[in-house]
Amino acid sequence: MVVSTDDYAAALIMGQPVNASQDFYQGMSIMTRLSWGYCGSGNLGQWLNVRDHYLALQFRGSGINDVHYGWARISNIAYVDLYGHLHASVMLSDFAYETIPGKQILTGQILDAPDGLIGSQQ
Fold first, then answer.
1. Cβ distance 65 to 83 under 8 Å?
2. Fewer CB within 10 Å, N- or C-terminus of the chain?
3. How far apart are the C-alpha atoms of 34 and 54, rounded to whole Å?
4. Are strands 86-97 and 67-80 parallel, antiparallel or unpaired?
5. Other beta carbons less than 10 A from residue 1's beta carbon
6. Sign of torsion over alpha carbons 108, 111, 116, 119
7. Which pTM does this prediction carry?
8. 62 φψ region: left (φ > 0), alpha (ψ -120 to 50), beta (else)
9. What angle do CA 100, 105, 108 make, to 5 degrees?
10. What is residue 54's three-state secondary structure?
11. Tens digit of pLDDT for each residue in 73-105?
12. pLDDT tens-place string over residues 6-33
């Protein structure tokens, strides 16, 4: 996944390129961190209470140069109720990846045509 400047997973908008020029983290990464207590609350990362943002993905096939790029469209909501209980939900709406190794894909792209973005007029 692509990481932002704060080392959390980046929440991208539709139409952003996913390719070799980005910084991919090869391990686990935190999407968001929410903390709360008597002193207040705070959060880190770009994924708290977002709708229809994209997580950029990179994965390897069977060959050494067999690198593919993709995305997952995710929404999430999290809040702390009056009793201090955390409520959170995450929804994976859809995903796609480029079948040609090394070829970029745009977030939201489902077809090769430039207007092949989710929700665009076709």
1. no
2. C
3. 20
4. antiparallel
5. 21
6. negative
7. 0.83
8. alpha
9. 135
10. strand
11. 999 998 888 888 888 899 999 999 999 999 999
12. 678 899 999 999 999 988 877 777 788 8
At 86, the amino acid letter reads L
pLDDT at 118: 64
At 99, the amino acid letter reads T
Separation between Cα atoms, residue 83 and residue 99, nearest integer Å: 48
Tokens read off for 44? 């880190």
Please check the confidence at residue 3 and state whether its pLDDT lies above 70. no
Domain coordinates of the chain in residue numbers? 17-106
Q: Which residues of 98-121 are buried (b: 16+ CB within 10 A; e: fewer)?
A: beeeeeebbbbbbeeeeeebbeee
What's the rounded Cα separation, in Å, for the pair 115 and 122? 7
**Which residue intervals of the chain are DSSP H helices?**
none
Strands 40-45 and 32-37, how do they pair?
Answer: antiparallel
Residue with tokens 């409520």: 87
Cα–Cα dist 10/68, whole Å: 18
Q: Is the pLDDT of residue 70 over 90?
A: yes
Q: Is 59 helix (H, G, I), strand (E, B) or coil?
A: strand
